[in-house]
Amino acid sequence: MLLLAIVLITPPIFERFKLPGLIGLLLAGVLFGSSGLGWLNADADIMKLFAEIGKIYLMFVAGLEIDMALFQKTRNRSLGFGMLTFAVPMLGGIAVGLLFNFGWLAAVLIGSLLASHTLLAYPIVQRFGIVNNEAVTVTVGATIFTDIGSLLVLAICLGINQGDFSALKLATLLGSLTLYTIAVLVGLKQLGRLFFSKTGKDEGNQFLFVMLSVFLCALGAQLIGVESIIGAFLAGLAINSVIGDGPVKEKTEFLGSVLFIPMFFVAMGLLLDLEAFGDILRSIELPLVIVGMLLLTKGLASLGARMLYGYTWPETWTMWSLSIPQVAATLAAALVGYEAEIINSQVFNSVILLMLVTAILGPLVTTRAGKHLIAVDALAENEGLDWLPAPSDIPESFTVVVPVYNPNTEQWLIELAASVARHENGRVIPLAIALAQPQMDSPQLARAMAHSRQRLEAAQAISATLEAEIDPRLRIDYNVAQGISHLSREENANLILLGMGQRSRLNTRLFSNIQDSILWAAHCPVVVARLLDSPTTFKTILLPIENPSPANLRTLRFAQVLANTYQAKITLLHVHGSRASELQRSRLAKQLELLVDRFPAADIDIDIRLVAGDNVVSTIVKTAAEYDVVMLRLQRRRVGNGLTVGSQTTSLVDQLTGSVILVGEPHPLRSDRPARSNRTAFKLNSKLLASS
């Protein structure tokens, strides 16, 4: 009961103070462990069980999250950077161990702990729309080599620690591990594809197959003499391409993210010795040297990649910031080494401190470097407006799907959908979903169908004055979100338009489960609108832009369509820090002008407004009071067990008192662009932008 209460309550409290939830779990472990209240015991059977399962699950999810398609595109360069960012920190860690008079075995293990990295800041580059930048792709691919390499060194250290470890046993271990790796990556992948093809939509058995695979691979790794987390990581890589991004992966990650992985962090907190931690603070040399050595050696590896492959400084800083966080593999390996008594509590606590520093520093640097990388990539002609084309490029049939259910919001949603459809010479499909029942003659289904027909009749009455083609549909389905997503795909819809309901104060999520599911599953862009007045009254549109990235073009295009329909004026708003120099402001204005120049020609006014403010949300809210509607870009991505929109977006929507339109990004597709081999043109663009 106490464990579940900690996992439920602690992370949200820390996240409200802008701190990672995992730090709260670690501190909760310290508070309730032997160093605090003593209510939880690290040696209890249930804690050992959850810690072991959480450790295995953590490494499995780490392998599951690696994008193998991105890795294949830059395999050779990923190998090169992977070797650099593994070998240099490895040597640095060994030097630290020997400097502080640890034995060779402990020194090598310390080196392996510094060699790996966790892509903790990857969601930031996703939000910035720079995932397909080669430097980012190479860093993601290098994760495979660093994690496998560090886990292999861990396996060798454990074997030596057990005694009687000869060169023959080392060769046997390496040979067994190589064969085992091939068997898992090739054999399990083929077996998984066969099983999934035979079971069809049986998600229950498919989920059980994945779970069995994880623990079978973990057990197999132990049988050949290596740590179980190596098998779990390999299982994640093998299962990765089998389950894709479907519901089975969602359920798999859900179980780990809400139960086993949080309990693993609590168990880690139980192992923290506050007396030893106090000794570290009194003799701070070891943790400071370990943190400093990691930052230095990861920086040297990134500089090496810059010299080898000609990356720009923003790309180099991005690679460094993505490769310094030490969380998943580092924590799991540190725990194994500590339990095997290869490293002592002083080193283990130093690793915890290393995790805290890098988990905060990495995302911060990624944010700053990513903004500069956006500026360099802003000139790239790789972003299209195909989902909302210019009038000269209108497809044969442009379709907007509008689910109708709430009579209070239906009219304005239909009006908004009709305005887009008219602009594109398309049609509107008002869609009513009646929840299916086991018996088709049940009274519940009859009432649901009657309500749906009423809403469709109301939609037809509304559309009679809108001069737009209307094609109402009634659908019976067991799941509302699936019914909307399925019909949209069947009709090859170009846009789904949803209304935003009222949120309770206890609900920290921006969207309901239905909206969340549609945003994640839909094949096309999804717009979520909170309309407090008729769209025909929109004469001023405010469009806050965090970064002048080409990824914003789709949202800007949607604003242009509405402005063209209602003869409205668009204002692009960028909030910069109060200490920004005149040169920085002029560059930002130039980048926004370049963005506007890429719009299809239209007879509308687009203003650029730069406002100083250290609190972005409050500055936007204050500015929005002058406008009829605020339009925000919404990127769809999964993190853990839900769709993440961002705390700033949620807070902003809550504080805005007027109409809000959230323009959902199309589902992130994997780019088929080849790796850049000619860096000269890229450098030229960078210089041109700097000179401007």
Automatic annotation (TrEMBL):
An example of a Pfam family matching this protein is Usp
Transmembrane regions listed in the UniProt entry: 21-40, 78-98, 104-125, 137-161, 167-188, 208-234, 254-274, 286-305, 317-338, 347-365
All copies of the Cation/H+ exchanger transmembrane domain together span: 5-366
Indicate where this protein resides in the cell: Membrane
Q: What keywords appear on the UniProt entry?
A: Antiport, Ion transport, Membrane, Transmembrane, Transmembrane helix, Transport
Tell me which family the UniProt entry assigns to this protein. Belongs to the monovalent cation:proton antiporter 2 (CPA2) transporter (TC 2.A.37) family.
Q: What is the protein's name according to its record?
A: Cation:proton antiporter
> Which organism's genome codes for this protein?
Leptolyngbya subtilissima DQ-A4
